[in-house]
Amino acid sequence: MRVHSKSKLLILAAAVAAAAPAVAAPLVRHKGAPDAIILQGVTVPAGSETLILSGQLASPIDPSRPATTIADYGDTKTQTVSTFKRIETILKAHGYAMGDVVKLTVFVAGDAKLGGKMDFAGFNDGYKQFFGTPEQPNLVARSTVQVAALAGPMYLIEIEAIAVKAPQ
């Protein structure tokens, strides 16, 4: 069987294209309003590595003492900061950083001190220490919902996180 010159060129072009490294598409963070502290969404390119974290809770303020009350874990802002520090540690253990986080789902329990309403401002104050800062300018897509309760009566915050590394 004879292969024509044109066919040889097509086969050679296909082989070269298959061997050439693909140009990776970037991760795109879609900003909404200029002053928004969260994103409208994120486009994650094919081939990205994704780490999905289960919901994380705050650590006790004083780990040397038994912790059974909200006071042992702190108010919403204190628990938010503690929970993000825990997330930061887990991310680092897997080779990620807070700047790789693209999506958060946040569950906030109502605070008895606020008549059973969630402390949204306290949560946002803690959030802004980790996202949109000069050290870590990336924002994330985020959902924040009030829930009736969390796994333990001492918790006011639970946070799930998704982190992504775009292909290089």
Defining traits:
6 strands, 4 helices, single chain, alpha+beta, 168 residues, two-stranded antiparallel sheet, four-stranded mixed β-sheet, 60s Ribosomal Protein L30, Chain: A, elongated
Quick structural summary:
The chain has 168 residues and is of the alpha+beta class. Helix content is 27%, strand content 25%.
Overview of this protein structure:
- With 168 residues, the protein is of the alpha+beta class.
- It has a single domain, classed as 60s Ribosomal Protein L30, Chain: A, CATH 3.30.1330.
- The protein is 27% helix and 25% strand.
- The chain has four helices and six strands, in the order αβββααβαββ.
- The strands form two sheets. A four-stranded mixed sheet has the order 3-6-4-5. The chain has a two-stranded antiparallel sheet with strand order 1-2.
- Strand 1 and strand 2 form a beta hairpin.
- Helix 3 packs parallel to helix 4.
- The protein is elongated.
- The relative contact order is 0.23.
- The model has no long low-confidence stretch (mean pLDDT 91).
